């Protein structure tokens, strides 16, 4: 007797569908070249970075010393700058007791205190009411602005518009009174001739009156100009 049972729907074998296998994507030649360049760059970059780090470790103490020195220099410069105000191309203007203008200029000026100003290559010039002018220059100077006093030293040279030139080593200018004086030897050249005075000079009224002190030697030109300037020697 056959005892086998008929197959039902549940007993039928099931067929399953598997997903197709994906093929690995082959990189393009361009991609391969990029990877090769990256590998080569890393190959050389890592040793170079290591060498740079070793070099920095070796020279770092020297760099640290240089930075400290720069800080010290900066502090010194700051302290010097705070001690006084420095100006380049300084110009000071004023008027004398007769309300005539004058100007004091300098290549550089340092404000030492409220009264004193140290000048480098100072120049002082004034113009008379008749249009004549007088200019004095030197290597160094000390200007007391409120008093109108200017002490000049080093190759002092005085010019007048009539061609007179005076040279000395020192000169004191009273800008308010329009006077210039010196106790050092002075040499003068002008339309009248030449003059040397061993004990200095005094100029009044902005150079219209000139006095020379001590033993003097004058050489007059053959044709003397007939100006109004008065020049005389004093003992």
Automatic annotation (TrEMBL):
Gene3D superfamilies on file: Lipopolysaccharide (LPS) transport protein A like domain
Organism: Granulibacter bethesdensis (strain ATCC BAA-1260 / CGDNIH1)
GO (cellular component) term, any one: plasma membrane
Stored Pfam families: LptC
Protein name: LPS export ABC transporter periplasmic protein LptC
Gene Ontology terms, MF aspect: lipopolysaccharide transmembrane transporter activity
InterPro entries from the UniProt entry: LipoPS_assembly_LptC-rel, LptC
Highest classification ranks of the organism: Bacteria, Pseudomonadati, Pseudomonadota, Alphaproteobacteria, Acetobacterales
Alphabetically ordered keywords of this record: Membrane, Transmembrane, Transmembrane helix
Residue runs in coiled coils: none
Keyword Transmembrane helix belongs to the record: yes
Transmembrane segments: 41-60
The UniProt record lists the keyword Membrane: yes
């Amino acid at each position: 007797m056959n005892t086998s049972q008929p197959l039902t729907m549940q007993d039928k074998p099931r067929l399953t569908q598997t997903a197709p296998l994906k093929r690995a994507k082959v990189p393009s030649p361009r991609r391969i070249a990029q990877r090769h360049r990256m590998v080569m760059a890393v190959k050389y970059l890592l040793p170079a970075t290591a060498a740079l780090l070793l070099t920095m470790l070796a020279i770092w103490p020297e760099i640290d010393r240089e930075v400290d020195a720069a800080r010290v220099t900066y502090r010194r410069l700051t302290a010097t700058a705070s001690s006084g105000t420095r100006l380049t191309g300084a110009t000071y203007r004023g008027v004398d007791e007769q309300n005539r203008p004058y100007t004091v200029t300098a290549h550089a000026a340092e404000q030492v205190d409220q009264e004193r100003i140290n000048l480098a290559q100072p120049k002082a010039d004034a113009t008379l009411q008749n249009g004549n002018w007088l200019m004095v220059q030197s290597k160094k100077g000390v200007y007391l602005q409120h008093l109108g006093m200017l002490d000049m030293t080093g190759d002092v040279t005085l010019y007048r518009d009539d061609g007179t030139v005076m040279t000395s080593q020192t000169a004191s200018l009273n800008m308010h009174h329009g006077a210039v004086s010196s106790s050092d030897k002075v040499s003068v050249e002008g339309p009248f001739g030449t003059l040397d005075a061993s004990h200095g000079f005094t100029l009044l009224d902005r150079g219209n009156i000139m006095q020379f002190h001590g033993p003097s030697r004058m050489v007059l030109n053959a044709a003397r100009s007939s100006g109004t300037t008065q020049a005389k020697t004093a003992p």
